[in-house]
Write a structure and sequence with these properties.
The structure is a single chain. It is built from 19 helices and twelve strands. With 771 residues, it is an alpha+beta fold. Helix 2 runs parallel beside helix 6.
Amino acid sequence: MTTATLFLSKLTIGRKLALIGAMFALPLAFLLYSVVAEKNIAIDFARAEISGNHFLSALTTAQMALQRSTAARLDEIAGVSAAGSAPTGADEAAAAIEGIASAARDFSDVPVEPALVAEAVDAAHGFLTDAATLVSGQLATRHAKVVAKLRDLIARVGDQSNLILDPDLDSFYTMYAVVVTLPELTDRLMDLSVLTSAIAEKKTLSVEDRAQFMILMGQFESARQALSKAVEAAYRGNPDGRLKAGLDADYRAATATLTFLAAGMKGHVLQRDGIPVDTHAAAQLRDAGLAVIDRVTKKAVAELDRLLQARIAGFEERLWWTLALAAVIALLAVALAGWIGRGISRSLAGISTTMTELAASNLDVAIPGLGRRDEVGAMAKAAQVFKDNAIENRRLVEDRDRQAQELKLSEQKFRTLIANIPGVCYRCANDAAYTMEFLSDSVETLSGYPAADFIGNRARTFASLFHPDDAALVDRVVAEALSRGKPYAIDYRIIHRDGTVRWVHEKGQGEFDDAGNLQHLDGAIFDVTAHRHLEDELTRKEQLATIGTVAATVSHELRNPLAAIRNSLATVGLRTRDKGLGVEHALERADRNIERCARIIYDLLEYTQPRHLVRTATDLDQWLENVLQARTLPDGITLATDLAAGSTASIDHEQFKQVIKRLIKNAVAALTSPTWHPDDRHPRRITVSSTAAGPHVRLTIGDSGPGIPADVLPRVFEPLFTTRNFGAGLGLPITRQIVEQHGGTITIESPPEGGTVVTIWLPRLAQQAAA
């Protein structure tokens, strides 16, 4: 525990609130001084966006000119000319490309690498030079590569000129339309045009071309919908409505044209019943689409420039008003914070005293603050819920004890009747497979398999149903009873055909001949799963009642303050950046501790809230390989895999990925523990393996670390138990919850010589388990 943490732990809540208030009051004077610089930064930010917007105008103009030039060359190859359009020649496209280099020089405040600009310009010029000699397929390939370079340059300009960080919704979504959706729409239109020309050249529509056309048309429609969403979002974010007034006419015309274009392209390609594609009409549609996209792009660039200029004017106008208002607000905030802090401190002290009484089982204590409507009132209501749950739990315990007594009396009264209740009756040999000579039909209800499958081990052995963790127990209990000549009774688990685990109670005895030789085993098996689940559920509810109430209270009462503190610290960090005040490390330490608190809250909620699995049949070996490849290990730690299960299991990918990541994280923590000092030659290794084991898949994750102490090992799955100085002790309990929800089990072993091995048993799918 650090000195700062020890100091804070000794302070009352009131003093902590006062300390927080002081921490925020100290920077106020500096913040008032720095507000002018902050406004100037915002103005410079917007001016950089204007430069980027002008640069983007040159880029989008060049991209559209290149698209039209390629379209004209494709028409020339196909021997058609789109009537009503003026084809753009290579000279016009070359001039537009030169405009990119000119923009890079004119707007040098946009920090885009000159080499990247030169590469795009050279590639475009080279393409225009070679275009006259290329056939349609080569032309389309080269065109796609050049456009990709221009798109990359557009993205770089948007990123480096602050446009991608625009804080206003209207200008951000207008920028998004210019940088992303309109270029994407142009590319998809050209892809459709290239494919249409190829289909026209073949004079037939193959299945593959139809599928490719539908894919491209779907991408075109998706880009068109993305444009619509971006424009509508920009409209909603523009409070004065001037953006819609300036852009909407061209946008609506473009939307109508592109909708007509999509329908026309589908008609020309998909609905002509063997008639060759009308390349002339298709070229007209393409040129019309390129024209409206070009108009919308230019109009959007102009509107974006207007929005940015208006923002700069607004910043400059509001600068002095901001200074005066900031000073007034700062004074009011300090006074209000002191008043609120005092009220919160007193209220929390009352709640703390009440919770202490409740923790001491004093359920008659009154809950203060129930009539309040603020957060303190919410905490009081949570304490009331905790009290009500505790009273209810006490009543449940009393009812359970009463029911247990009644059950005991009932068992004594109806012992003979219960002994004759039919379950699964059997007669079997005392061998390793428990080969069945007779088995009642009710075994199908119990296991999911018909009785005929087990007779003489025809399709499977009865021992194959035993849960791997209980097989040795069954053998031992039966052997001990036979050695004493006594009946046996045992509870154990079996694996149902559907992969679920069933608890059974078995009673039986050996039948001997006159010479004392064992002939066979006779007995009956009863399904006690529901009873087991009821006991487990009651225990779980008792645990979760306390944890869940605390988790809900902690989540509600701490998340918002933590978020507010984090945002405030971020603001302080932003305002003090590069000022040389020396507060960076303190801010980072505060942010790390806030993240740790948020993680604890998340674990508490995840452990106590119900989890819905979305399970799919999965090749476990391939899935594990993908998950492990995505994991980066620290230097010095190696990963060895032996994935040989060759099996399919039904799992929820996201939930089970959490299991694997938690176990790998624990292994890494063990191998990098600062208290473990192995010999330099000792390998730091994590081993992951998978094997098929009858109706199960066995997954093991082991490490060569220091291992788990013998006194700690039995408690590793206990909620809220941890040996670390951080965390809530819920990682392994959550892991076991997820595994058991999948119908599996998990165990942890740590031999005296060191190292830890985690073993997970999962049911295989029925068809593999039966193989």
